[in-house]
Amino acid sequence: MExxxxxxxxLQGVARLALRRAGATARxxxxxxxxxxxxxxxxxxxxxxxxxxxxxxxxxxERVRAQGPVARSRLGALAxxxxxxxxxxxxxxxxxxxxxxxxxxxxxxxxxxxxxxxxLDPPDHTRLRRIAAPAFRPRTVRSSADRIEAILHRVLDRxxxxxxFDLVADVxxxxxxxxxxxxxxxxxxxxxxxxHLGHVVGQALDGVASxxxxxxxxxxxxxLAELFTGLxxxxxxxxxxxxxxxxxxxxWHDGRTTRAEYLSSCSLLLLAGFETTVNLIGNSVTALxxxxxxxxxxxxxxxxxxxxxxxxLRHDPPVQLTSRIAGADVELAGHGxxxxxxxxxxxxxxxxxxxxxxxxxxxxxxRRGEPEHLAFSSGIHYxxxxxLARLEGEIAVRVLAQRLPDLRVADRPRRRAGVxxxxxxxxxxxxxxxxx
Length: 436
Fold this sequence. Notes:
Number of strands: 12
Number of helices: 18
Shape: globular
Order of helices and strands: HHHHEEHEHHHEHHHHHHHHEEEEHHEEEE
Strand order of the largest sheet: 1-2-8-5-3
Structural class: alpha+beta
């Protein structure tokens, strides 16, 4: 599941560049200080790397875009904002997802995702992705639509009759958590437990900023390793199970993967399988609620739900950016990019490319004939879970419009911290709960 396009810790790379600029013996605090200093004097890539909230991220993208096709930071990083160049970087074999560890060989700070196929180039990426791929094929996912919708109805039944509830904690999180857990064959007695693990890992994608955060990430790694090691033992005793954990455990048991690869693949598929979908649902509903006419149009015609999901993925995607390392000297829009250069592909900016999309800053449900967004990345790292994420988002928007036509945001939503993953921590909503 590469709903978190590789490599996951894109802004961590910027911080590591800052660390090298600050000196090999500098502490991470010095690196953060250098990033903040350059942000203050107007370096837009440094501004991205130093943001703690994504509220103003699109205005920063426009400052990056104003620097030209290939923006360069005094930190040494490059960034591209156009849809064409983002896709070129994501698709060209010359750009790698590897080489993110610093010169000391220390881990990249991605905790349970360390070493997953999110971070690998072929042939290892191909080998590991191929094992899980059958469970996420579009036809396979579509065959589960009724079961997925039934899960959402069960989730909504738990808050039925309440005048107010939190769309994120009560619906947008438990729904995809339950779906991916059932698909993988993971017990899900406590959805909040997985929501917490996803939150810990998601926050780390912008960089590990403290010892306490590093310890949280380590505990999450240990907890997931214990869970999936136990499940592998269960599958060894009952090898006929054909869920995703069963497929991955069988590959470990017969030597096609290592234990570390099994654990990182399971962790990636579980966490990426819900973490970004939570944001997709929240971003979709809040976009419709900002213009009440949009919400009312979906209530009148729930078949618009698929268009809502696609427009959200373009206009306000759950994953805002990713990065690549140039494996050779290459050229982008006439600009030389030297081997080893770190290139940020700003997916959120690509979705609002004025050369590609009409009224790029406007949320519209009537778009026709425009290129597909890059919210699921492109090339060999195109999101394995894209069919599932699309289906869950479509079902969520449609069922909410059908069951809660008078749904309203009751208080100001609060965004989650960080930039790489864009979504909401809380969305307080109110509804009269009409009779079913």
